[in-house]
Specification:
membrane; Tetracycline Repressor, domain 2; Four Helix Bundle (Hemerythrin (Met), subunit A); 77% helix; EC 2.5.1.141; mainly alpha; binds farnesyl diphosphate; Protoheme IX farnesyltransferase; binds protoporphyrin IX containing FE; cell membrane
């Protein structure tokens, strides 16, 4: 198709917009863990892009049947008929293999192993298994998206410590409010595709109650590294302000009495969740490197 050449489709298979935030949560921890060279940062960004991009392409191979049914995804390269499923699988596995080799040879083996673990978790535990079988899919499967801070940390420190695992947990607890805010507004799509997302299985009110408690846990957890002396006042104030806004947004969703009244605040929470995570991780790096 003239308006969608192959290169454009290959990039679309990697879900570049999602990767941009994954890379923020990879690179910021590198500056928390130490003082990385520009070359290490660039290598980790390239390796991280190829690994997450490969995972996303394999996700589109496995999900080609449901992507074909959902309005949000039906124009992707496979359901729209522009690419062969097998070619997409080969592309995904190919770039993830390149990433594994690159990270192992030019960064270190632990970094490569953690990134590959993220790939397997997302492809097999989330996409292949839990996404279609349980409303807890994005809670447990969401751990895949929490690997990037470990990857960045290991690239600089060569090992993992308590702060690295706290960063993993922050992304882990962030995922339910991030995703369910979107899922509340995409129930028809998921219903048509037979994907058991929480709002469909538990109902909206239970899902929103869980979003609230995950957000409370998240904000509590973001403050915890300060108690361990990992961060100072710049980060603490940022975490409290950013977290306060998140709680305010989720509370607005919870306070809305009808599904119609929830549409606006839940879209807000979804959009804000992206800004929240980016700014929180940025604040960590700034706190450690600029004000240390
Ligand atoms: C199991 C975990 C997750 C699930 C199920 C999930 C699901 C989604 C979905 C369905 C979208 C909408 C995409 C679209 O409109 O095509 C989205 C958007 C997005 N997600 Fe997540 N997400 C998860 C974790 C993450 C993580 C860990 C990150 C990064 C740290 C992330 C970053 C983003 C970004 C940046 C967008 C906006 C993309 C855009 O505007 O095109 N997500 N997510
Ligand atoms: C370290 C490393 C390589 C980690 C990889 C982890 C990774 C790619 C996380 C992304 C999470 C994500 C985009 C989920 C989308 O949900 P979905 O697949 O249900 O969305 P869809 O309906 O848009 O396909």
């Amino acid at each position: 198709m003239a308006d969608a050449p192959l290169a454009k489709d290959l990039i679309a298979l990697t879900k570049p917009r999602i990767i941009s935030l994954l890379l923020v949560t990879t690179v910021a921890p590198m500056y928390v863990a130490g003082v990385p060279s520009v070359l290490t940062v660039l290598l980790v960004m390239l390796g991280g892009y190829l690994m997450a991009g490969g995972a996303n392409a394999v996700n589109m191979y496995i999900d080609r049947d449901i992507d074909d049914v959902m309005a949000r995804t039906k124009l992707r390269p496979i359901p729209s008929g522009r690419m062969h499923a097998t070619a997409v699988l080969a592309f995904g596995v190919g770039i993830a293999t390149a990433a594994t080799w690159m990270l192992a040879v030019y960064v270190n083996v632990l970094t490569a192993a953690l990134a590959l673990a993220g790939f397997y978790f997302y492809v097999f535990i989330y996409t292949r298994w839990l996404k279609r079988s349980s409303p807890q899919n994005i809670v447990i499967g969401g751990a895949a998206g929490a690997f990037p801070p470990l990857v960045g940390w290991a690239a600089v420190a060569g090992q993992l410590d308590l702060t690295a695992w706290l960063l993993f947990l922050i992304v882990f607890y962030w995922t339910p409010p991030h995703f369910w805010a979107l899922a509340l507004n995409k129930q028809r799509d998921y219903g048509n595709a037979g994907v058991p997302m929480a709002p469909l299985v538990w109902g909206e009110e239970e899902t929103i109650a869980q979003m609230w408690w995950y957000s409370v846990l998240l904000v509590g957890l973001t403050v915890l590294p300060v108690a361990f002396g990992a961060f100072g006042p710049i980060y603490l104030v940022s975490a409290l302000v950013l977290g306060g806004l998140l709680l305010w947004g989720v509370w607005k969703v919870r306070a809305a009495a009808t599904p119609e009244a929830r549409v606006k605040p839940s879209w807000w929470v979804y959009g804000y969740s992206l800004l929240y995570l980016a700014l929180l991780f940025l604040a960590m790096a700034i706190d450690r490197r600029v004000f240390a």
